[in-house]
Amino acid sequence: MPKTTPVPALSRRSPHPEGVSNDEFRAAMSRLAAGVCLITAHETPLTADGPRGEDVGMTATAFMSVSLDPPLVLVSLREGSRMDDLLAEQPLWAVSVLADDQLQVAGRFAMKGRISDRLLFADVPYVRGEASGAPLLTGALATLECRTENRVEAGDHTLVVGRVLTAGLPKPESAPLTYFRSRYRHLSQ
Predict the structure, then answer these.
(1) What are the strands of the beta sheet with 34-35, ordered from one edge?
(2) Cα–Cα distances in angstroms (integers) from residue 134 to residues 38, 55, 57, 156, in the given order
(3) pLDDT at 3
(4) Residues 19, 101: Cα–Cα separation, whole Å
(5) 86 DSSP assignment
(6) Where do runs of H (alpha helix) occur along 48-159?
(7) Which residues of the chain fall below pLDDT 50?
(8) Which residues contact 23 (CB under 8 A, 6 or more apart)?
(9) Residues 159, 165, 166, 167, CA torsion sign
């Protein structure tokens, strides 16, 4: 008979019908290390003579490659978030894979209840993507510009699958910023 190691008991608050609670699920998934990305898009003005459009950004750790042929990626967005609402209307968006020296950028764009994305971009160095019009961070490990191919409702999130239109390597030799056990981490090399 194989030997098993008991799993520490976690809080059983508000279990789902299947038996796992939000706390148990969150604790287990926090053990999955993830890269950190900044997802950006440009909100176009409502009218030609109206106020200019605004850049929108959010920190994401639920981002992955889906396919090589065609080149597809996926990002998971909280349903009803500003980025989810924007990408329901705007099919073009961008991804900057954050380097370990971009911790402040990750924290800034992960803030809840922030007032203005315009202020968040104020002192962050970026270039505007030619295909998407969205900000691409100049100090990122890699950048991608995407066009939405599909949106899938999944619980309290929307999975957005995007076709990669451009890819760049602004700072390819840097170490990545990672997220593990609910904290940003530096990967030791």
Answers:
(1) 34-35, 177-180, 183-186
(2) 11, 7, 9, 26
(3) 55
(4) 40
(5) H
(6) 82-89, 103-110, 117-121
(7) 5, 7, 9-12
(8) 10, 11, 13
(9) positive
- Sequence-ordered alpha helix ranges (H) in the chain: 22-29, 82-89, 103-110, 117-121
Peptide bond into 71 cis (omega under 30): no
pLDDT of residue 71: 97
Structure tokens at 39: 């997802």
3-state SS, 155-172, equals: CCEEEEEEEEEEEECCCC
Q: Token pair for residue 127?
A: 């270039």
pTM: 0.84
Handedness of CA 47, 49, 50, 52 (dihedral sign): positive
**Tell me: the pLDDT tens digits for 49-91?**
655 678 999 999 999 999 999 999 999 999 989 999 999 999 9
103 and 56 Cβ atoms separated by less than 8 Å: no
What is the number of other CB atoms lying within 10 angstroms of the CB of residue 43? 18
